[in-house]
Amino acid sequence: MKNFKKTGVILVTMAVAFGVLAGAVAYAAENAKDVVNYRKSVMKAQSAHLKAIKAIVRGKVGYTGLLGNHAKALDLTGKGLTDLFPAGTGPDKIKSRAKADIWKDWKKFEASAKKLNVETAKLVKIANGGDKKAVADQFKVVGKACGGCHKPFRAKKKKKK
Ligand code: HEC
To answer: Percent of the chain having pLDDT more than 70?
Structure first.
């Protein structure tokens, strides 16, 4: 009986290990190019919401009622940013603006992503509060959080010939 239990534990452990492995294999099967395109789409979505917020807080348009939605969208699309940079999607493998330093200094990269999450969560709260000046101030902080990652980890755009 004792042995049987032990075998059970081993079987379960093996099943879990296999599950993890299968997951990793499924992930590796993803095309690096598709991952890069996907992360660019997510980044562009972030940028679009940030621009929409900018237009509202600068008073270019009057859609103040939508501030909360844009802030929420920005917050949600910023979740799991680091997952968009799996191993094998660096500049040694595929053309993109992601610098090799991301994987060399993963902790710092993670911290930059976390910083954005903290600041966009604050933006959501403030945007729902309705104080436009406070939203404008936090908007700047969020913009800096984007830059806080781009500066060390995103390569400069190559000039089009
Ligand atoms: C944790 C790091 C990090 C944060 C935070 C971050 N980005 Fe990025 N972003 C990157 C990296 C790295 C790239 C280059 C990706 C590539 O070329 O594969 C990028 C690329 C981009 C691009 C170019 C996409 C393209 O089509 O080439 C835009 C636009 C962008 N980010 C906007 C934003 C905005 C707006 C924010 C803040 C709301 C933000 N990013 C926050 C790391 C970050």
So the answer is: 81
